[in-house]
Amino acid sequence: MTAPAPIRPRHPQWGLPRTPARLAVPLVAGLLLAACGPSPVDMVEHPVTTTPSRVAGEELQRSAEPDESCAAEPVPAEFAGAGQRRVASEGQVPDRVEVPRSPERILALGAGAVDVACALGLQDLVVGTSGLPRDADVFLPHSLVDLPDIPIPAGVAPGEVAAAARDLRPDLIVLADTPGRDPAVARELSEVAPTVVYDADVLRWTDATESISDAYGRPRAGGDVLLDVIDRARATTARTTPSDTQVSLVSIVGDTGDGVVTQDPDTLGSLMLEAVGAGRPPAQRTREGERIPPLPESPALGDELDGDVIFTVLGGSPESEEIARRVFSSDRWLELDAVGARRMFVVDRAVWEGAGPVAARAVLEDIANSINGIAPDG
User: Fold this and answer.
1) Which helix (H) or strand (E) holds 77?
2) In Å, what is the CA distance from 85 to each residue of 13, 73, 98, 314, 339?
3) Quick check: 92 pLDDT over 90?
4) CATH of domain 76-217
5) How far apart are the first and last CA of the chain?
């Protein structure tokens, strides 16, 4: 049953980890591979497209299937017996927390915590959420999206957050450590149920996945989920040879003069493009999530928004579609080579600025389905 709640606050943006030893190489350096696959020319002649709906006059490329995103069955808890066990908790004292070996009522306060619960098939154990993006239902099922929402904006009394949490009777709370959050929130929540805080830094979603999975009593399964993302990234590289294509990633926003900017490199979509070795226009090049200057022999040419293909991130506010209509009809936009070649694809902000393995899988599927294709003619 859906509980009335205030509008969800803007969620933090998360990306790949800085470099946990066993994952950074496979997800970044290790996937910049030479692979066999169809050429961009072949794919343009035989395009692969997904076109479930239209937005701002353009087809929306949406590969995620919300009702199929979560594991169908819950991954079994990995620690036998009743009682509790100790797990690490980020940025607080004590730095280890006693949690149930097999939690049964999870309060997932952070988009990453919700995403990982979905990946592990624990969606039926989640009793409330926080931090989900506005359009989370494009890749998460309503069984998660429609749960009671406990927003934790700056300025809200920690006691009020704890009171809302207490009404949901959780036996485990997992809380995103986001910039500006009052440290007292975690202390107050710990009076309600064992509270584990995970690092929600924008570049560390794989670290967060491991921490959250451990809190849920499924650390090995969390590692398996990340290995699955690595396998899918490798398959995407082999299937589409993205290094052959300069991929422009832009964002429709309402706070700039012309309504469109190059996408922040510290977002899941940008970092997954990096992980599969996609070529990027000189003005958009990144390394380990950080913008790097163009090489002297590869000066930026033309509009920084342009590339062989453009992924356009859209959504997140009621005004985004109207802003996109203005952008898509502007002279600057219509003069981009990729737009003229019908190689511009609109993708969901909730997915491409996601926070966990379920969103990462959806980004990879969007890349695989569109990067070498052409968009349907309006």
Assistant:
1) none
2) 30, 24, 5, 42, 55
3) no
4) 3.40.50.1980
5) 39
Put simply, whether the predicted model's pTM sits higher than 0.85 gets the answer no
Structure tokens at 83: 């009682």
Report whether pLDDT(97) > 80: yes
192 CB contacts (<8 Å, ≥6 apart)? 162, 165, 166, 170, 173
Closest CA to 61 of 50, 73, 77: 50
21-65+234-370 has which CATH code? 3.40.50.1980
Residue carrying the six token digits 């803007």 = 10
Could you give the C-alpha distances from 352 to 8, 219, 268, 318, 348, in angstroms and in order?
A: 18, 25, 6, 18, 6
Q: For the chain, what are the domain ranges?
A: 21-65+234-370, 76-217
Where does the chain show beta strands of DSSP type E?
53-55, 58-60, 84-88, 96-100, 106-109, 126-130, 172-177, 195-199, 247-252, 260-262, 286-287, 290-291, 309-314, 344-348
- Residue 70, by phi and psi: left (phi above 0), alpha (psi -120 to 50) or beta? beta
Q: For the chain, how many residues are written?
A: 378
- Token pair for residue 292? 């790097």
Q: How confident is the model at residue 57 (pLDDT cuts 50, 70, 90)?
A: low
Give the tens place of pLDDT for each residue, 104-132. 999 999 999 999 999 999 999 999 999 99
List CB contacts of 378: < 8 A, sequence separation 6 or more.
57, 58, 59
pLDDT one-digit tens code per residue, 214-225: 999 999 999 999
User: For residue 98, what are the β-bridge partners?
Assistant: 86
Instruction: Answer yes or no: same fold for 21-65+234-370 and 76-217.
Output: yes
Q: Using CA atoms, how far apart are residues 370 and 378, in angstroms rounded to an integer? A: 16
Could you give the count of Cα atoms lying within 13 Å of 231 in the half-sphere of its Cβ?
6
